[in-house]
Structures are given as structure tokens and as C-alpha cells.
Amino acid sequence: MTRHDDDPVGPNALDRVTWALRRAELAVQTLKEQRLRPLGMAAAHYTLLISVHAEPGLTGAELARRLNVTPQAIASLVARLESRGQLERREHPRHRHVQELHLTDAGREALRAGDAVIADIERHIAESLGTDETARLRALLDQVNKAVRDA
């Protein structure tokens, strides 16, 4: 990268760890979208389904915070998955105006199918890196996560 005095970025900006993380994230996200599409599923659907599976009873607002998206985006996804019969809203036992999200049997089946696709992508990455490097990458990513939280 040629540097000029008026460059809007620092030297080697495209060699930064944060840029490498973003490129890897985009590559993985693109592959997920391609591989999930034949199932009629987007990566965002898989993410929502697995999040509700991991924590049944989450509200839309809680999901939005956890997934770092707007409540409107979650509401749209929830409506789409609910219309497919994969997700259902249930009244909160103590707060009638709050609705909890739960997977239906169809939602669990969709998640099962989607997770097989994601597991295959994971296997491909792990085979490419090897066992030791995969474990090292996971540990490094956990360290990055902690460093960012502590910043």
C-alpha cells in the first residue's frame, strides 16, 4: 500500500488482525449462506434457531442484544420463522406483555438440518488447518474475545 501524507488510514491497515478477522468472517458467512440456501435457510435463521435452542424462552429484545442486531431485524426473523412453524411465542409466566421464544418440532428439524451443514463447514476448516492448529485458532480467538471485552 503506497502511503501519502493525506492517506485516511495508517500504514499496513490491510494487514491488521482486525481486518484479517473480518475477511475470515466474511468468507465463512458467505459459505454458510451458499450451503444453507438449498435448505431454504439463511445464516441468520440458523443463528436465531440455535440461539433459541441454547436458551429457550429468550425474548426478542434479549436476542437482539446477544446477536448485536436491531430489535426490528429480530422481529422480522421471528415472524418469518413463526410463519414457517419453526418458532413459537409463548406468554412469559410473570410478565404478560413479554413473549418468550421457543422452537417447535419443525424448528428443531430445521436446526438439525442446518447444523449438519454448519458442522460440515467446520470439518472442512478443521481438516484444512489440522487438529493442533484448529485448537490453537480456537484458543487465540477466545483470547481475542477476552481482550476486546477487557478493552
Layout of SSEs?
Elements: H1 17-36, H2 43-54, H3 60-67, H4 71-83, E1 87-91, E2 99-103, H5 105-129, H6 131-150
Antiparallel strand pairs: 1-2
Helix pairs in contact: 1-5, 2-5, 3-4, 5-6
Describe the protein's architecture and organization.
The longest helix has 25 residues. The model has no long low-confidence stretch (mean pLDDT 93). The protein has one domain: Arc Repressor Mutant, subunit A (Orthogonal Bundle), CATH 1.10.10.10. The chain is 65% helix and 7% strand. With 151 residues, it is mostly helical. The chain is globular, with a radius of gyration of 19 Å.
Average pLDDT confidence is 93
Largest sheet: 2 strands, antiparallel
CATH architecture: Orthogonal Bundle
CATH-assigned homologous superfamily: Winged helix-like DNA-binding domain superfamily/Winged helix DNA-binding domain
Q: What is the name of the CATH topology? A: Arc Repressor Mutant, subunit A
Distance between the termini: 29 Å
Q: How many distinct beta strands? A: 2
Strand order of the largest sheet: 1-2
What is the name of the CATH class? Mainly Alpha
Radius of gyration: 19 Å
Helical proportion?
Answer: 55-70%
pLDDT under 50 segments (min length 5)? Answer: none
The computed structural class is: mainly alpha
Q: Give the amount of beta strand, in percent.
A: 5-15%
Counting DSSP H or I runs of 4 or more residues, the number of helices is: 6
Work out the count of structural domains.
Answer: 1
What characteristic shape results from the CA principal axes?
Answer: globular
The SSE order reads HHHHEEHH
